[in-house]
Amino acid sequence: xxxxxxxxxxxxxxxxxxxxxxxxxxxxxxxxxxxxxxxxxxxxxxxxxxxxxxxxxxxxxxxxxxxxxxxxxxxxxxxxxxxxxxxxxxxxxxxxxxxxxxxxxxxxxxxxxxxxxxxxxxxxxxxxxxxxxxxxxxxxxxxxxxxxxxxxxxxxxxxxxxxxxxxxxxxxxxxxxxxxxxxxxxxxxxxxxxxxxxxxxxxxxxxxxx
Length: 210
What we know:
Region (Disordered): 41-145, 172-210
Organism: Aulographum hederae CBS 113979
Oligomer: single chain
GO biological process, one term: exon-exon junction complex disassembly
Pfam families: Mago-bind (PF09282)
Domain WIBG Mago-binding: 21-47
C-alpha cells in the first residue's frame, strides 16, 4: 500500500491529495466519539468550494485606475491633492444649498401680491351678470303674459325683476347693463310698467295655484 505524503495538499473543501494523486476525505471522529470513515473522491470531481474564481485582469486594472496616482509625481503631493479634492458628501451638501436657495427665490415670486382689480371693472362685470338675469326674467314674464305655464323656479326669477332692476340702478347701470349717463333718471316708465306687469302676473299665478 502506498504511503501517504507527510504534508498532503488540503483543498478548501477538506479533500486531501496524496503523493499518488489519490483524492479523499480523511477519516474523522464525530462529536459522539464515533469514527467517520475515509471517503475516496472520484477522479475528475471538483466541489464548488474548490472551483477557482475567474478573474478578468483587464477589468480589475480598469477598476483600479486612478488609485496609483500620476506616474512620476511625488506621492506626498498626490496625497495632499487627493485630500483637498471635494468628496461626494461635500458635493451633495452644495447641491442641497443651491436647491434651497432656488426654492426660496420661487417662494418670494409666488408671494408677490396680484394686481388689484379696478372697482369700475368689477362693477361692469357684476352689472352684465345682473342684466343677463333681468333679461331672462322678463322673457319668462312675457311668456306668462301670453298664457304659457311657468315652473316654480321660473316664477321665482320673475319675482326678482324689481330687485335686479334696483341692483343695476344702485351700480349706475341701466337694464341693458350699460352705464348710465350723468343726469339719466332712475328707471324708465317702460321698465316700471314691465315691473308692475310682472308683479301682477306673479300674484295672479300664485292665486291660481292656491
